[in-house]
Amino acid sequence: MGIRFSTAPKDGVKHRLDPPRIVETAENLAREIDQRLPGSTLSGLAAELVQIAHCTDERASRARRPIYAVRAASVLAIVAAASLLGFIGFHVHARWVFGTITEVFEATDAGFNLVAILAGALWFLASFEARIKRRRVLGYIEELREFIHVIDVTQLYFTPDLYRPETGPPLGGRKLDHTYLLFCTEMLAVIGNLAPLYARGASGDTVLRAVADVDLLANSISLKLQAKAEAVRLGRRSSE
């Protein structure tokens, strides 16, 4: 039931996350869950986790690639704005004669406001691509966060007393033990290792904080499930 790696890291690098190995781990885990709990909700979730693991590396790589259409549009907008300013400055003949100190302050204030507006517009255009990428990545990370909650919900139906529902017979007539919870913790571990792939090359701390939150959530729920699994294991042992 443990997580297994059978392929060697690429180029001898061992301290970096290797997406193909994470995918292989998810596939091995899904296969074990399907063998132990065929047709169960957890088995279906494990299959979905494999699909997410397959597309996570591509999503992360795509998020790091430049969006040339946005860059071209931003450059054109900046060039157009600069050309417009040049046209205005060339054709408008300002009279730099001030009668009072108040007129000097008014002209200075107007010039400062114009520079501030232009700087803000240029910053908006220059950072537009980064904001698009960040929004996409945060959406992918939110998907992982929601997956963690779904895994947690699947085990809330069962009580620590031998995994029996509070009312009625055991689910589907299957004999469930603490390994169900251990499978949940391993799925959480896979998700916790998928999230950092989105942090590679991330600019700013928004994405890093989101990844850290996912990792913290996965670890906290995993600790809770491990404690519950131990309670179930001890309960089964005392009842035998």
TrEMBL record:
Q: Which domain of life is it from?
A: Bacteria
Q: Which residues cross the membrane?
A: 68-90, 110-128
UniProt keywords (A-Z) are: Membrane, Transmembrane, Transmembrane helix
Write the protein's name. Uncharacterized protein
Q: Which organism is it from?
A: Paludisphaera borealis
